[in-house]
Prior knowledge:
This protein is mainly alpha-helical. The protein has 5 helices and 2 strands, in the order H-E-H-H-E-H-H.
Amino acid sequence: MSQPNVLEAVLALHKPVKKWEPYEGAGYSFNTREEALRSGGEEDLGTVAIEAGPQYFEICEECGRIESEQLSETGEDWGYRESLWPCPTVAAIESALKESA
Length: 101
Ligand SMILES: [Zn+2]
Protein backbone atom coordinates (compact mmCIF):
# COMPACT_ATOMS: atom_id res chain seq x y z
CA MET A 1 0.00 0.00 0.00
CA SER A 2 1.26 3.44 -0.82
CA GLN A 3 1.05 6.04 1.90
CA PRO A 4 -2.09 7.83 0.68
CA ASN A 5 -3.96 4.50 0.68
CA VAL A 6 -2.82 3.80 4.22
CA LEU A 7 -4.19 7.15 5.31
CA GLU A 8 -7.45 6.56 3.48
CA ALA A 9 -7.87 3.21 5.21
CA VAL A 10 -7.34 4.76 8.63
CA LEU A 11 -9.53 7.78 7.90
CA ALA A 12 -12.31 5.53 6.57
CA LEU A 13 -12.53 4.01 10.06
CA HIS A 14 -11.92 7.21 12.00
CA LYS A 15 -14.67 9.52 10.83
CA PRO A 16 -16.98 11.89 12.71
CA VAL A 17 -20.53 10.93 13.68
CA LYS A 18 -23.06 13.17 15.40
CA LYS A 19 -24.45 12.61 18.88
CA TRP A 20 -27.47 14.67 19.91
CA GLU A 21 -28.13 16.13 23.36
CA PRO A 22 -31.71 17.17 24.18
CA TYR A 23 -30.16 20.52 25.15
CA GLU A 24 -26.63 21.78 25.57
CA GLY A 25 -24.99 20.29 28.65
CA ALA A 26 -27.68 17.65 29.22
CA GLY A 27 -25.02 15.05 29.99
CA TYR A 28 -26.64 12.34 27.89
CA SER A 29 -27.12 11.98 24.16
CA PHE A 30 -28.77 10.10 21.33
CA ASN A 31 -27.93 9.03 17.79
CA THR A 32 -30.57 11.23 16.14
CA ARG A 33 -32.05 14.69 16.66
CA GLU A 34 -35.53 13.13 16.75
CA GLU A 35 -34.64 10.86 19.67
CA ALA A 36 -33.11 13.81 21.52
CA LEU A 37 -36.21 15.92 20.89
CA ARG A 38 -38.51 13.21 22.21
CA SER A 39 -36.48 12.75 25.39
CA GLY A 40 -36.07 16.50 25.92
CA GLY A 41 -39.81 16.97 25.93
CA GLU A 42 -39.97 15.41 29.36
CA GLU A 43 -37.66 17.99 30.90
CA ASP A 44 -39.28 21.02 32.47
CA LEU A 45 -36.40 23.13 33.68
CA GLY A 46 -37.27 26.20 31.59
CA THR A 47 -33.71 27.24 30.83
CA VAL A 48 -32.43 29.04 27.76
CA ALA A 49 -30.41 25.95 26.80
CA ILE A 50 -33.54 23.82 26.70
CA GLU A 51 -35.43 26.37 24.61
CA ALA A 52 -32.59 26.31 22.07
CA GLY A 53 -33.40 22.64 21.49
CA PRO A 54 -31.23 19.65 20.66
CA GLN A 55 -27.54 20.32 20.05
CA TYR A 56 -25.05 17.95 18.51
CA PHE A 57 -21.41 17.26 19.06
CA GLU A 58 -19.17 14.97 17.08
CA ILE A 59 -17.33 11.85 18.11
CA CYS A 60 -15.09 9.47 16.17
CA GLU A 61 -17.06 6.43 15.04
CA GLU A 62 -14.20 3.95 15.56
CA CYS A 63 -12.82 5.39 18.80
CA GLY A 64 -16.38 5.65 20.10
CA ARG A 65 -17.04 2.00 19.28
CA ILE A 66 -13.88 0.95 21.15
CA GLU A 67 -14.61 3.21 24.12
CA SER A 68 -18.20 2.05 24.49
CA GLU A 69 -17.15 -1.62 24.30
CA GLN A 70 -14.53 -1.14 27.01
CA LEU A 71 -17.00 0.65 29.28
CA SER A 72 -19.74 -1.92 28.74
CA GLU A 73 -17.38 -4.47 30.32
CA THR A 74 -16.99 -2.38 33.46
CA GLY A 75 -20.58 -1.08 33.53
CA GLU A 76 -19.46 2.55 33.50
CA ASP A 77 -21.38 5.25 31.65
CA TRP A 78 -19.98 6.29 28.30
CA GLY A 79 -18.68 9.83 28.72
CA TYR A 80 -16.91 10.19 25.34
CA ARG A 81 -13.64 10.75 27.17
CA GLU A 82 -11.45 9.24 24.43
CA SER A 83 -13.64 9.60 21.38
CA LEU A 84 -14.49 13.30 20.99
CA TRP A 85 -13.83 14.54 17.46
CA PRO A 86 -11.13 14.95 16.26
CA CYS A 87 -9.90 11.81 17.99
CA PRO A 88 -6.20 11.40 18.86
CA THR A 89 -5.62 9.25 15.74
CA VAL A 90 -7.00 11.87 13.35
CA ALA A 91 -5.33 14.72 15.26
CA ALA A 92 -1.95 12.94 14.92
CA ILE A 93 -2.45 12.41 11.17
CA GLU A 94 -3.50 16.03 10.64
CA SER A 95 -0.55 17.36 12.57
CA ALA A 96 1.88 15.09 10.69
CA LEU A 97 0.40 16.19 7.34
CA LYS A 98 0.78 19.85 8.32
CA GLU A 99 4.43 19.31 9.23
CA SER A 100 5.20 17.57 5.92
CA ALA A 101 3.37 20.17 3.80
ZN1 LIG B 1 -10.76 7.75 16.11
